[in-house]
Amino acid sequence: GHLPLSLGNFSMMINMDISANKLNGEFLASLSKLQMLKYLNLSWNTIDGHISKQLDHMLNLDTIDLSHNKLSGKIPKSLEKLQHIQVLDLSFNQLEGEIPSGGKFANLSANSFIGNYALCGAPKFHVPLCLNKTERQSKSNAARVIAACAIGGSAFVVIVCTLIGISFYRKRGMLKQPDEIERLRGITLRVSSYRELLHATSNFSNANFLGNESFGSVYKGILLDETAVAVK
């Protein structure tokens, strides 16, 4: 179930451990009301949302374990104000951005942040260095240039292959040359009626039989204008 809203009402609570309870829903900002709390363990649930910036009001906290949840967004820089923190475990969430470096964060190790693949910060945390605004813009521009080059290169390859294909087929005679096309345009096909073909072949007589092909029998014939033809 969800984290009960009433948790913020236990103002005198010192220790809270509700780990591994299949809790879900967003992180409760109302927990910041528990200003006497020293130990907070919400690990191994499916709590999502952002870590509340108001946790810096809980000045007595010495242990915060929010590991193995689905928390997202940035780690609030305001947590640097918690001067009694000995243990801060934010591992295996979906956090992003820069890991704060001030306050007690200077004493933390990489184990506090492992499993958050979009974090950046100091090398000791085993995460990439954070890019400033100019570097991020340069990286973004470089990515656009690479993408444009890749698209342009692909188009160039297609054009070259097309030209090679046209040249190959012309050499093989697969494409007609312009002068041949013009010559073919001057040819007209003659259409003869079935009666004319009967007369030309003497009613398809055996005397005019030439042989059989895959499409049927072939007969020789003479049209009225004395043109010799083969009729199938």
Automatic annotation (TrEMBL):
<keyword id="KW-0325">Glycoprotein</keyword>
<keyword id="KW-0433">Leucine-rich repeat</keyword>
<dbReference type="InterPro" id="IPR051809">
    <property type="entry name" value="Plant_receptor-like_S/T_kinase"/>
</dbReference>
<dbReference type="InterPro" id="IPR032675">
    <property type="entry name" value="LRR_dom_sf"/>
</dbReference>
<protein>
    <recommendedName>
        <fullName>Protein kinase domain-containing protein</fullName>
    </recommendedName>
</protein>
<dbReference type="Pfam" id="PF13855">
    <property type="entry name" value="LRR_8"/>
</dbReference>
<dbReference type="InterPro" id="IPR011009">
    <property type="entry name" value="Kinase-like_dom_sf"/>
</dbReference>
<dbReference type="GO" id="GO:0016020">
    <property type="term" value="C:membrane"/>
</dbReference>
<feature type="transmembrane region" description="Helical">
    <location>
        <begin position="145"/>
        <end position="169"/>
    </location>
</feature>
<keyword id="KW-1133">Transmembrane helix</keyword>
<keyword id="KW-0472">Membrane</keyword>
<keyword id="KW-0677">Repeat</keyword>
<keyword id="KW-0812">Transmembrane</keyword>
<dbReference type="InterPro" id="IPR001611">
    <property type="entry name" value="Leu-rich_rpt"/>
</dbReference>
<comment type="similarity">
    <text>Belongs to the RLP family.</text>
</comment>
<dbReference type="Pfam" id="PF13516">
    <property type="entry name" value="LRR_6"/>
</dbReference>
